[in-house]
Structures are given as structure tokens and as C-alpha cells.
């Protein structure tokens, strides 16, 4: 079997290869009855078995627990009141015993060799605290691309790049490093994985990638909901916080400014679309804000401008514009 390809930052010193690490695979689940069994099966069927599989049920009201019945003697199941994905992951972190805390979303799956590949990366570079693989993007069970195509992994300046994109998605993070960094921010409704990656990298952690798609991420429809607005609001919030919290180099400050410009522009455009589609009283003013936002692309700006005159027609145009890029359904974009 040919050696695996890794994408890794330069080593800070002499690297001594270590024994294989152990992995606690963690699934945070909320109303995931339709997919949780497949996710659990993919973790338990790894060529390098996990030390444990922890399912943290975030207050599900469907049959999530019942769907796990065939696996109950092989998993650790914990149930908490609904508090969001960050809360569910932190509950699992309190129980985890593995050297690495490996994330698996409830509607995704690991390919069979993922943990084995991550273990090889950890042995090759035991100085890394964040281990990743590429991922297939699937829409309606059909592969439509890879995560790295939409969000390239960074090896040169990881601190600048993480302010622009969450290039280390679905990672396995050294458990002690994650705890020291403060775990996942439960004040965030969404985006806690990206915010956590920023804190980890700025605390001195380094990330490496197995350059193979060994994770399967299900890309969902990009229909407009309040969740999309909240996601963008959270992104702007924690990016602004990063600018206040860290001493940034010129390159990092430039990267942050570019990222904030993009996220704010997407937010104002999404708010306009939500208002137009909902026919709210402030639809025209939201559309006008999108016209005036400096980061909005010209074609979307023209569509927003049309909303001041014809809100219903413009809503359809804005929806087509936002749906035109499937990559917007990818985390960290």
C-alpha cells in the first residue's frame, strides 16, 4: 500500500515518532433518528477501532435513543437538555478518555480507514494537536466534490488562514489541548467549531491533514431560514472578538479584515433575502442596506437594488444568486 500523503506545517523541532494514539469518537446528536445509526456504525467499523464512541444526545425529542438500541453495549450514551452542539460536545469531553477527541456529525459518516489514517499522521508528526482528513461532499447520496476543493487546507500561515476559513473541519483534537484552550464556546448558537479552531491555533496548536477524503459530509439544501442569519451573525461576532483578543500580525489583520468584509456582506444580503421572502415591513430597507454594503458582489447588488422597486421579483433573483454556489453549504465558508 503506498504511503499516505500528508499536508503539514513545518516542524518546530526534532520529531520523535510515537506509539499509535487512542481516539474518542464523539457524536453530538439532536433529533437524528434517521441518520444516527449509520454514523455510529461508521465509527465502530473502523480498521483502527476507537477507544470509545460517545453519543451526546442534545435533548432529542424524536427516536434518536431508540435508533441506537443495537449499539448500546458498544457506546457511551449521555443525554442532556437541549443546549446546542457546543454544550453536547462539552458534555462528551467530560467523559472522554482517548488521547484525541474526534468529531463526527450525526448525519455524516467516517470512511473505514479514517482513524487509521489519522493515527498514521499522529505517529509521523506527534507535535500536531489537530488532525484532519479531506472529506467528500455528498448531496442526495451523490458525491459533488471534496471539502479541500472548496476550503483548501493551509500549511504556511495557519493563524492567518483560520480567520478566513475553517480549513480544519471535523478534526480530531488532542484532548488535553482542547481542555486547556477552554473547550467549545457554549454561548455560540452556531460556529463553535470554527471559533474553537481559532483559539486552538492562537494558543500554539498546529494542524495537519491526511490528504485523502475519508469523511463523508452530507450537503443539505440551502433553503433560507433564520438559522442561516444566526450562523452569519455568530461568525461576525467571534471574528470581531478575535480581532480584540489577539495581537495580530499585519498579514493576520489583513486576513481578518477580508474575512469580516465577506461575512458581513453575506449577512446583509441574507437578511435582505429573508425580509423579502417573508414580506416583512423592513424588506426595502434591508435591500437598500445590501445595495450599500461594500462587500456585496455587483450582480447581487443589482438584484438588491431592484427590490426597492419590485420586492417580490427581487426575492426570487436573490434566492437564485445565493443558491448558485453549492460551496456555501460547506462549513466554514
Give a quick precis of the structure:
This protein is of the alpha/beta class.
Percent of residues in β-strands? 15-25%
CATH class of the largest domain: Alpha Beta
Shape: globular
- The low-confidence parts are 324-328
Any key phrases for this structure?
333 residues; alpha/beta; Spore Coat Polysaccharide Biosynthesis Protein SpsA, Chain A; 2 domains; 10-stranded mixed beta sheet; 13 helices; 42% helix; 17% strand; globular
Question: How does this model look, in words?
Answer:
The chain is α/β, with parallel strands linked by helices. The chain folds into two domains: 213 residues, Spore Coat Polysaccharide Biosynthesis Protein SpsA, Chain A (Alpha-Beta Complex); 99 residues, no CATH class. 42% of the residues lie in helices and 17% in strands. It is built from 13 helices and ten strands. Strands 1, 2, 3, 4, 5, 6, 7, 8, 9 and 10 form a ten-stranded mixed beta sheet that branches. The two termini are 34 Å apart.
Topology of helices and strands:
Layout lengths: L5 E2 L15 E7 L6 H9 L7 E7 L5 H4 L8 E5 L4 H9 L6 E4 L5 E2 L3 H11 L5 E10 L2 E5 H4 L7 H4 L10 E3 H6 L11 H11 L4 E12 L7 H20 L4 H29 L4 H10 L5 H10 L3 H13 L10
Parallel strand pairs: 2-3, 2-5, 3-4, 7-10
Antiparallel strand pairs: 1-10, 5-9, 6-10, 7-8, 7-9
Helix pairs in contact: 9-10, 10-11, 10-13, 11-12, 12-13
Amino acid at each position: 500500500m503506498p504511503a499516505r500523503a500528508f499536508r503539514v506545517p513545518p516542524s518546530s523541532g526534532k520529531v520523535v515518532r510515537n506509539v499509535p494514539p487512542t481516539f474518542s469518537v464523539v457524536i453530538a446528536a439532536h433529533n437524528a433518528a434517521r441518520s444516527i445509526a449509520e454514523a455510529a456504525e461508521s465509527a465502530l467499523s473502523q480498521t483502527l477501532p476507537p477507544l470509545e464512541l460517545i453519543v451526546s444526545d442534545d435533548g432529542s425529542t424524536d427516536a434518536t435513543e431508540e435508533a441506537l438500541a443495537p449499539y448500546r453495549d458498544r457506546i457511551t450514551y449521555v443525554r442532556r437538555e437541549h443546549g446546542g452542539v457546543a454544550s453536547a460536545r462539552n458534555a462528551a469531553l467530560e467523559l472522554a478518555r482517548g488521547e484525541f477527541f474526534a468529531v463526527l456529525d450525526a448525519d455524516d459518516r467516517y470512511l473505514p480507514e479514517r482513524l487509521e489514517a489519522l493515527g498514521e499522521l499522529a505517529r509521523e508528526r506527534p507535535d500536531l494537536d489537530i488532525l484532519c482528513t479531506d472529506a467528500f461532499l455528498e448531496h442526495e447520496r451523490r458525491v459533488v466534490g471534496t471539502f479541500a476543493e472548496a476550503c483548501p487546507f493551509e500549511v504556511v500561515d495557519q493563524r492567518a488562514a483560520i480567520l478566513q476559513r475553517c480549513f480544519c473541519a471535523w478534526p480530531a483534537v488532542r484532548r488535553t489541548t482542547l481542555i486547556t484552550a477552554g473547550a467549545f464556546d457554549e454561548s455560540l448558537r452556531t460556529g463553535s467549531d470554527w471559533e474553537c479552531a481559532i483559539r486552538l491555533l492562537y494558543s500554539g496548536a498546529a494542524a495537519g491533514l491526511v490528504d485523502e477524503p475519508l469523511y463523508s459530509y452530507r450537503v443539505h439544501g440551502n433553503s433560507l431560514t433564520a438559522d442561516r442569519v444566526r450562523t452569519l451573525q455568530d461568525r461576525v461576532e467571534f471574528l470581531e472578538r478575535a480581532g480584540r483578543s489577539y495581537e495580530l500580525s499585519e498579514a493576520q489583520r489583513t486576513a481578518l479584515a477580508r474575512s469580516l468584509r465577506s461575512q458581513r456582506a453575506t449577512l446583509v444580503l441574507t437578511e435582505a433575502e429573508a425580509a423579502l421572502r417573508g414580506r416583512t415591513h423592513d424588506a426595502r430597507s434591508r435591500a437598500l442596506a445590501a445595495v450599500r454594503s461594500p462587500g456585496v458582489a455587483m450582480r447581487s447588488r443589482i438584484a438588491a437594488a431592484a427590490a426597492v422597486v419590485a420586492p417580490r421579483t427581487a426575492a426570487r433573483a436573490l434566492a437564485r444568486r445565493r443558491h448558485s454556489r453549492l460551496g456555501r453549504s460547506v462549513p466554514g465558508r
